[in-house]
Amino acid sequence: MPLSLPTITIIVPYFNKWTRTKYLLESLNYQEGAEGIFDVIIIDDGSDPPIGSFIKKTYLFPLQIIYQNNSGRSAARNSGLHMAKGEVVLFIDDDIILPPSFIRKHSEIHAKRKNVFVHNPIYDLPEYTLLSNPENGEYYDFLKIKTPGKSLGKRLSLNAVFDNREQFEKTGRMSRLEKLITEILLTEGTESLRWIGCVGGSISICRKTALKFGGFDMNFKVWGGEDFEFGYRLIKAGLEIVYDRDNRIYHITHAHKNPDSERNAGFDYFYQKHEDPFILELYQYIYNKSLKPKDFLERRISYESG
Which of 34, 123, 289, 300 has its CA 20 to 30 Å from the CA of residue 8? Predict the structure, then answer.
């Protein structure tokens, strides 16, 4: 008998990133073998202007936009979770480009496996990090970069992505964090650390399971750490993570105004809540660019040996 695929609600927390989010929506239009099994909820977390002012076309999938006062990504994701109708919820960030097989593969995994959540390798597109608009090359105003005439930044266009997919995908590079995640998820005996694979850019899980565990912790008010903490609770409760290694997604990276202070606040709260030394180890790995994935794993052996 053919595999019966569960329905999926895709939940996108959105905040002032239309010049990136339009690539996500376009990639959802290009999904193959997923007709009729998914819908999309965008939670606009207090954007100015709101995302609805930019959407001028009709997409090939059901799309719902919910507006809320700015409350942070945990609150936005939880709003979508409580409104979702799909058997599976798939959390995607608003600056991601998906491969054509993406949704169907997630649905197939959940059709075969229970009590799991799914992560995909995230490949960064760092050449667009400084650009507020990757299409026209404009820099973020807060960076105060002065250049004569037009920006020297590399350009990204819908045609370049969707008419020449193979060439576009060659530009992606796995980040240091994703290299650590890959090492942990592919190494035996690291089950207790696999919460590190719960990255907000792409997480799918049974909707009822996500609700059972309360979704994302609303005490995370700023960017950073809320996704890892959700994964931490899932792993400690006995769920397994599935690493869909061949289903890569692409992150249109972007600058942050205050990345260190925001991430510090998130990780401080994460550690205070669970008091696991590996939360601090992850924090150190992210900040210390000289550390390699093997260094993190060696620390695991050191802790376990006493």
Answer: 123
